[in-house]
C-alpha cells in the first residue's frame, strides 16, 4: 500500500473516531481577490517554473481569476520589477513570461566561479541553426545545398540541444523530415517570436561569429521518438 493510500485511510479512521460518518471533500482553492495577491502568486509560479509561461497557462493555474485580472497583475508585477536597484526583471520571451536577471548585472554574474560553463556551439552548428531559423521549414538536403557540406551530425547536435525540432515531412518522394526552430531557440536568444529575428541586411557586416555558449541541455532530452526520426534522416 502506498503512502497516499495509507494517509487517506488514516484520515478516514480519524474522522470516524470523532463521530463523522464520511470523509470531507478537499477544500476548494481560495479565491484571489486582490492584485497584490495575484502578483505574489505569479512571482512564485514564474520563479519555480524555469521556463516561460504563457498567459493562457497562468490563467489555468490561477483558477478563479479571469484573463484580464491575470494580465493586469502581471503588468503590475513587471512595473515592480522595473524599479531602480532591482537585479531581476519579468520579461516576455518565447511567447510567455519569465523572471530573468538584468543585463547590467551580467559582469557580476560572470564572476560567479561556481556557475557551470555551458557547452559551446561550433561555427558549423551556428551556420546551420541560422539557415533553419531564416528558411524554415526545410529538409536536410536544402540545408546541405546552402552550406555545401554534410549536416547530419550538426542536425543531431541541434536536436539534442532542443534548438531545432522536427516539424513534419515534406510531401515529395521519400517524405524527408522538415526542421524548424523550437521554443528553446527563442528562449536561448531572448526572442519573443521569429519576427524578432534581425534582418539579414542588418547582420551581414558583423564579421566572423564567435562560438555561442548555451546552458547545458536538461537530462532526458534524448527521447526515443526523436532519435528514431533523426536516425531515419541521417541514414537516408
Order of helices and strands: HHHHEEHEHEHHEEHHEH
Strand order of the largest sheet: 4-6-5
**Strand proportion:** 5-15%
Mean pLDDT: 77
Structural class: alpha+beta
**Share of helix among residues?**
40-55%
Q: What is the rounded distance between the termini?
A: 50 Å
What is the overall silhouette?
A: elongated
Poorly predicted ranges = 1-28, 215-236
Task: Tell me the total number of β-strands.
Answer: 7
Please give the count of helices.
11
The largest β sheet comes out as: 3 strands, antiparallel
Query: Radius of gyration, Cα only, in angstroms?
Result: 24 Å
Key attributes of the depicted protein:
alpha+beta, 11 helices, disordered N terminus, disordered C terminus
Ordered list of secondary-structure elements with their pairings:
Elements: H1 3-17, H2 35-49, H3 55-61, H4 67-81, E1 88-93, E2 96-101, H5 106-110, E3 120-121, H6 123-135, E4 138-139, H7 140-147, H8 152-160, E5 164-169, E6 177-181, H9 183-189, H10 200-203, E7 212-213, H11 224-234
Antiparallel strand pairs: 1-2, 3-7, 4-6, 5-6
Helix pairs in contact: 2-4, 6-8, 8-11
Description:
The chain is of the alpha+beta class and 236 residues long. Helices cover 46% and strands 12% of the residues. The chain has a three-stranded antiparallel beta sheet with strand order 4-6-5. A two-stranded antiparallel ribbon has the order 1-2. A hairpin with a 2-residue loop joins strand 1 and strand 2 (96-101). The longest helix has 15 residues, at 3-17. The protein is elongated and about 60 Å long. 19% of the residues are buried.
Amino acid at each position: 500500500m502506498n503512502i497516499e493510500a495509507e494517509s487517506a485511510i488514516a484520515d478516514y479512521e480519524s474522522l470516524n473516531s470523532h463521530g463523522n460518518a464520511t470523509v470531507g471533500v478537499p477544500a476548494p482553492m481560495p479565491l484571489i481577490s486582490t492584485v497584490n495577491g495575484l502578483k505574489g502568486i505569479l512571482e512564485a509560479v514564474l520563479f519555480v517554473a524555469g521556463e516561460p509561461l504563457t498567459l493562457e497557462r497562468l490563467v489555468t493555474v490561477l483558477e478563479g481569476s479571469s484573463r484580464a485580472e491575470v494580465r493586469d497583475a502581471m503588468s503590475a508585477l513587471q512595473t515592480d520589477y522595473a524599479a531602480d536597484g532591482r537585479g531581476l526583471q519579468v520579461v516576455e520571451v518565447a511567447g510567455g513570461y519569465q523572471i530573468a536577471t538584468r543585463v547590467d548585472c551580467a559582469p557580476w554574474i560572470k564572476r560567479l566561479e561556481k556557475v557551470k560553463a555551458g557547452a559551446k556551439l561550433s561555427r558549423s552548428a551556428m551556420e546551420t541553426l541560422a539557415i533553419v531559423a531564416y528558411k524554415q521549414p526545410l529538409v536536410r538536403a536544402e540545408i546541405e545545398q546552402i552550406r555545401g557540406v554534410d549536416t547530419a551530425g550538426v542536425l543531431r547536435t541541434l536536436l539534442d540541444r532542443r534548438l531545432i525540432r522536427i516539424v513534419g515531412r515534406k510531401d515529395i518522394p521519400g517524405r524527408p523530415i522538415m526542421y524548424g526552430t523550437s521554443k528553446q531557440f527563442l528562449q536561448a536568444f531572448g526572442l519573443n517570436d521569429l519576427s524578432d529575428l534581425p534582418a539579414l541586411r542588418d547582420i551581414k557586416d558583423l564579421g566572423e561569429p564567435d562560438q555561442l555558449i548555451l546552458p547545458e541541455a536538461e537530462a532526458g532530452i534524448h527521447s526515443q521518438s526523436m532519435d528514431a526520426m533523426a536516425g531515419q534522416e541521417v541514414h537516408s
